Description:
Layout: E1 13-17, H1 21-24, H2 26-37, E2 41-45, E3 58-60, H3 67-80, H4 86-92, E4 93-94, H5 96-103, H6 108-115, H7 119-131, E5 135-139, H8 141-144, H9 149-162, E6 173-175, H10 182-187, E7 194-195, E8 199-200, H11 204-214, H12 226-235, E9 240-244, H13 248-251, H14 255-264, E10 267-272, E11 284-287, E12 296-299, E13 304-308, H15 321-331, H16 342-351, E14 368-369, E15 393-394, E16 413-418, H17 434-439, E17 444-447, H18 449-455, E18 462-466, E19 471-478, E20 486-490, E21 518-524
Parallel strand pairs: 1-2, 1-5, 2-3, 4-15, 5-6, 9-10, 10-11, 16-20, 17-19
Antiparallel strand pairs: 7-8, 12-13, 13-14, 16-21, 17-20, 18-19, 18-21
Amino acid sequence: MTNSISEIENHDVIFVIGSNTTETHPIIGLKIKKAVRKGAELIVADPRKIDLVRFAQVWIQQRPGTDVALLNSMMHVIIKEDLIDKKFIDSRTEGFEAFRGMLDEYTPEVGESITGVPKEDIIKAALLYGNAIRPGIYYTMGITQHTHGTENVFVIAKLALMTGNLGRESTGVNPLRGQNNVQGATDMGCIPDFYPGYQKVNIRGVKEKFEKVWGVKLSEIPGLTATEMVRSANEGSLKALYIMGENPVMSDPHMTHTIKAFKSLDFLVVQDIFMTETAELADVVLPAACFAEKDGTFTNTERRVQRVRKAVEAPGDAKEDSWIVRELAKRFGYEMKYDFIEEVFQEAGRLWPALGGITYKRIAKMGLQWPCPTLDHPGTPYLFKGGFPHGKALFTAVRYRPSEELPDNEYPFLLSTGRQLFQYHTGSMTRRIEAINMVSPEAYIEINPDDAKQLGLNDGRMVKVTSRRGSIHIKALISDKPSKGMVFIPFHFKEAAANMLTNAALDPISKIPELKVCAVKIEKI
């Protein structure tokens, strides 16, 4: 997030796109509702009638995968109505005139023809955002999990840049992270082309800096993303895999393809707190401690570094992740000499100045938001106040292109997947809780009433859902949440695994799979 959670209540306009916030980030959802009660106007752009629609001044029900066309049309209106921030554009960006020219073709009428959203709603949303003084944009994987997900993010950034809504309190572009330490994991280099602190592996000076501190020679070749690893395993070029705290058999697209890949490996190690569907395929399972059984830090969605303290001892042979990694490294001949866990964090601060001013003592009671470069720095509630790290921000033309797989005569429905409030991720933790399972006991497919009538379906009827990759049996839930021709399945339930159906096609830049759009057919059982 460029801004902070506490700033949400002070927005005058909130634009939520591709985020079922109240179910996937319920605390953020409560903050948004509170902001609306205080007078903020809410724009919701989502193909499903999510809970936040009840609080929205404008609900934009775009066709899945058409976000670029929607946002381009909104920006067309903002330019036409002269709601751009000329001073901000001139001083802090470049390439705007060429970008403006590209937007000429995205009239509200064109936007309506592509997205299915009435042009009046496109105009209304554009005017709300364009006239706002403190608007914030919030999105999640409804934006990123597409073959053009990176382009979706680019266009969101351009909307904020065009209106000067970056670098100020209660504005910004705010992607909400999906799990408790996803931000911290990426901060620390758990991505294939960066060392900790988003420092590129293929920059010579960066590589040499880490080589000097770590005392080893490092590769300058970026590694594979998680989705690329599965493909490489299937092709036979990847022979071994070490998976920590992840259940890709359930969470990755095209489940059959993922299982085949893992079975073809020479060696699979899984480190987790439970015997997940992925761990069941492993040659070796390393039992790990959970969050309450270890020391360290988590970094949350607003970049806040927070202390984690051991509350209970881990059961059985379970060990802290840091202990397991250090012991493995020792057996490979590389000893990580840390006497206590804060030494690891101190080293991170020396190699990445954004953490340089954070110590365990300073965050003993309250976390700090990076960048926090010095011991007297208060942390940074919002980014880009004085400018952008690499100079001026660039406006680049992004045109709409359709999703990889769309409905046709054989597979007439568009499937989107997601989460629901009562289950978490692949269910490896929450589905072990009897009280939760009483509220959320089984999988379902949401089907629009018009489609259900055409298919001759009643609520609760078992159906067979088939894509080009597989089939599942699942209970029908007749609901007005999805639009006609669209269906929705939560992905938490292994007995009706949504990712048996989903498409493994990747965004060419981020390598994120297109989990939000694929074509399916539905048959009565």
